[in-house]
User: What shape does this take?
Amino acid sequence: MEEIIKYFKELTPRQIEQFTNLLPLYAEWNDRINVISRKDIENIYLHHVLHSLSIGRLLTFPENTTVLDVGTGGGFPGIPLAILFPKVKFTLCDSIGKKIKVAQGVADALKLSNVTTVNSRVEAIDGRFDYVVSRAVTRLSEFYPWVKGKYINSIIYLKGGDLSDEIAECVKINKLDRALISEHYIGEWFEEEYFAEKKIIIITR
Assistant: This one.
């Protein structure tokens, strides 16, 4: 929790309690359904929670906006973002039922009324959302067609490494304007070595 408090000093007591409860909740669920590497569960705040919250350092979701988290797994980045933005509506989707079961269980335990979970491939989800978020579920060129008709403002994609070739491929295959895609280095906000090569990719309309 130290990392969360260090970078998000404006958290309310309720938010601090919710973030504090993430480790025991995920540890309990992970004993039943493995959604986080068992060796990595001790690093949940750095590798999963703070990584998810980096989106909140880049931008603030306006109240009552809608966010679709694609390939959420056990609830990342959706669950931490739903704690950080309690007045924003999050829909967490994943095609693997047992992972969505974990995300729903954690959301219920934390009483996150702004979270809805859906066991589905994103292509089958109807409607449009203000934002789409995701954490490195596949290459950008493959991800973009899944969601291109489902967002109003932007896609926010967490991924690491040198993404220049991947972005160029996405632009070419999907006939996108390169000017619509921007890279943001998470290491500019978080000093931990883990984030040195981590980035947020934004695709706007």
User: Anything to note?
Assistant: The CA atoms of residues 130 and 153 lie 5 Å apart.
